[in-house]
Amino acid sequence: MNSQELLKLLELVQSGKLAPAKAIERLKHLPFEDLDFAKVDHHRALRQGFAEVIFGKGKSADQIAGIVRAMLAVKDSRHNILITRADAKIFAKVKRAAGKHAKSAKFHLRSGVITIERESNIVGKGTILVVSAGTSDIPVAEEALLTTRIMGNHAEHLYDVGVAGIHRLLENRSALANARVIICVAGMEGALPSVVGGLVGVPVIAVPTSVGYGASFGGVAALLGMLNSCASNVTVVNIDNGFGAACVASCINRL
Length: 255
Description:
five-stranded parallel sheet; single chain; Rossmann fold; alpha/beta; four-stranded mixed sheet; 2 domains; about 260 residues
């Protein structure tokens, strides 16, 4: 339940169209619902602007399906559902659990993201541009792209424009200039965010990936390179954390 849904509920009580006892019934699972293995935070959208996101890795398909059922069962709630780090087995369970919303359930293979889209309102003020250095970085970039869109942003992508062929990036100066926030995804030495940061006057959220040869240390080299960026508008999230970058970008884009 978000602030608009709560306001509508209170207005129904005020007008006499909804009995207070019925309102309590609808609100009884706020702020969370205890499923034993998980405590579903139904209050998240009201506090933070978007519902709780399910991190799929480490959870069983049955556990994830149970959380989805609990989220979909809340009356007067239309928020989108996002599951990251999932697979086809999890998706099969989620689709069955989604019931009447099954047609809206989608599994995005490249990123391992599952979405159930129930509303498509754009709340972001501008465009979030997701940029990847190489094709191998696309799975993380796709996680960021899908997250920004499901959180109510207009988002575009620009893939395979790394510093090994800098002309590919410079060919797209207009896309960079039109973005309100940029998410920059890169592995190897992680140089791309510094270059992008030097070309624009907007926040650049750098995402190091675990792509690279041995001395990249599973993304640590890119992480350290990004943390030491000389572009002052660059900030950094954790390795392979496209979701986290998208959340921050969404917050900035709502301001």
